[in-house]
Write the structure tokens for this entry.
Amino acid sequence: GENVEQHPSTLSVQEGDSAVIKCTYSDSASNYFPWYKQELGKGPQLIIDIRSNVGEKKDQRIAVTLNKTAKHFSLHITETQPEDSAVYFCAASRVQAGTALIFGKGTTLSVSS
Amino acid sequence: DVKVTQSSRYLVKRTGEKVFLECVQDMDHENMFWYRQDPGLGLRLIYFSYDVKMKEKGDIPEGYSVSREKKERFSLILESASTNQTSMYLCATSRGYYERYFGPGTRLTVT
């Protein structure tokens, strides 16, 4: 089955700096790669996702890149703000019936002002 | 907006008790999921359901069962709670294969 590795487990940056979180996956047939943000006391919420027919996707200060050959994908947050502080999870799956989304172990991002 | 509600935010139970965690969604999503979240282990799938009365085992189903009698409700059952089931439990729903909508979670402590 799919296995997703996520690094680093904790990341501290200064406000305004960039933050990068990296994930690798094992199932070459996986074709859907979402990123979730979990704020304190809340459930995770989807912030961006990418499908295997594209290599990069941007949404304002957030971008995700995918390298299918190397089986890794990354989340990039530019101009970080204190409200970006949260736990971030990457995930991977095949888009087909009976397959579940497999999550990485999470990265705790702290943005200090 | 999709709303996923979980019956309790905090729950304390004794070892050996039968525990019911309820999840209700209001968006007519066909798929529902139960995850367990532990520090350093991320989100691990316990069970999921693609339709009423249908269920599939996830990665860690041992010690748990589920029930889905109505489309909007998915229950997680701990038949005989043990201390190693102390955790945060998250319910999620989806329409199709993509975005999961998570509830706020239930923090269960088994003493």
